[in-house]
Design a protein that fits this description.
Blueprint lengths: L1 H32 L19 H11 L4 E5 L8 H8 L3 E5 L5 H14 L5 E5 L20 H4 L7 H4 L2 H16 L21 H5 L17 H21 L4 E6 L4 H9 L4 H15 L5 E5 L4 H4 L13 H13 L9 H14 L15
Parallel strand pairs: 1-2, 1-3, 3-4, 4-5
Keywords: Membrane, Transmembrane, Transmembrane helix
Length: 366
């Protein structure tokens, strides 16, 4: 009996020892390689694939060297940090969040500011499709690895002993290094444009045009206006007011004319959307260190479906042009030109021949 107990204790000791050694090895390996940059910046001898927004963005903000931040939704994913730096004279990071609400982007901006006192410029998209929303709305379909964002060291176990990280992300770092590749640049990071199909046929495949069109116009209600105000105040304006030394470049992305048809004109929401944008502009322009840009009047872009992969997402070339315009201060909204801008936009899209989108002969503009 005693011999049996001794064998059991020996087995138990060996098992616990090997388990502890394995935990130390794999946990240490994850912490040293650190594919999500949670503990440190990339090691110089390794080549890191940077390809996971919500898992790597916070580490990028914590540990990279920069003085400018490019962020927002998928409307900023194809921006090139090198072009931005050339235009604005900065050393930027790009930390986009596809499908992010205003709150998620704001929290990322605030974390970056808390990590880095040297930030002088923040560029972020303000998507009109997320404007009329409760201030605390969150994209629940997106990953939310809070253990990477908070300051609680104990829940880091979800990272360092995560088998998908160990046998997936850590392994990818070694594979990329062995292949002689380099760490992903911020020009390449989340740049999906080369993989997509562009043009009218591609756009029209992404949605079905409503058969019935609303005759009645939906107004911007008091409840809508309240949500716009609270959304902007909490998730855009507050951070700008708290950091007057930072210049915030904000822009309304130019959605395609197919969006104006399928999501606005067909549903009776055009006036509601334009009034929401107008209200947003009036609030944002009250803050001195916010520079607001809008491009829906650039119909050579919005009405040419060769510039789009779906009703929303514009091409890399369009993104390049937006950066050039913003750096030059072109298409900037001011208190003086705001009303004329929205009147022009509303007149154009109300008068547009949307039937022409679905015919073989579709002019770029009217």
């Amino acid at each position: 009996m005693k011999q049996s107990e001794a064998k059991y204790k020996r087995w138990l000791g060996l098992t616990l020892g090997f388990t502890a050694a394995g935990l130390v090895f794999f946990g240490g390996l994850t912490a040293v390689v650190d594919p999500f940059f949670h503990f440190h910046k990339p090691l110089s001898g390794l080549a890191y694939p940077i390809d996971s927004e919500r898992y790597q963005n916070d580490g990028i903000s914590r540990h990279f060297t920069y003085d400018a931040v490019i962020t927002g939704t998928s409307m900023t994913e194809n921006f090139k940090a090198s072009q931005f730096d050339s235009l604005f004279g900065t050393n930027s990071i790009k930390i986009p969040f596809g499908g992010a609400t205003y709150k998620e982007v704001d929290q990322a901006v605030r974390r970056a500011i808390s990590y880095n006192p040297d930030i002088k410029i923040v560029l972020r998209s303000l998507d009109g499709s997320f404007l009329i929303q409760d201030k605390d709305t969150w994209n629940e379909t997106a990953p939310r690895p809070d253990y990477l964002y908070d300051e609680n060291p104990f829940n880091d176990v979800n990272y360092i002993w995560n088998k998908e990280v160990i046998f997936g992300n850590v392994k990818s770092v070694f594979a990329r290094t062995e292949a002689g590749e380099k760490t992903t640049t911020f020009d390449q990071y989340m740049n999906w444009a080369p993989e997509k199909e562009w043009g009218k046929e591609a756009v029209l495949r992404t949605y079905s045009r409503p058969e019935e069109r609303f005759v009645r116009e939906n107004p911007l209600t008091e409840e809508d206006a309240r949500m716009v105000r609270e959304n902007l105040e909490q998730n855009v304006i507050a951070a700008a007011r708290e950091n007057p030394e930072i210049t915030f470049y904000c822009f309304f992305p130019p959605y395609s004319v197919a969006y104006w048809d399928s999501e606005l004109a067909a549903k009776g929401d055009m006036g509601r959307q334009i009034e929401a944008l107008r209200l947003a502009a009036s609030l944002l322009l009250e803050v001195d260190n916010i520079r607001l840009f809008a491009f829906d009047d650039q119909t050579q872009i919005t009405c040419n479906l060769d510039n789009y992969m779906d009703v929303l997402h514009y091409s890399e070339a369009v993104g390049d042009q937006l950066l050039v315009w913003m750096a030059a201060g072109e298409h900037r909204l001011t208190r003086e030109n705001m009303d004329a801008y929205f009147e022009k936009v509303e007149a154009f899209y109300r008068g547009y021949d949307y039937e022409g989108i679905y015919t073989e002969e579709n002019a770029d503009t009217q």
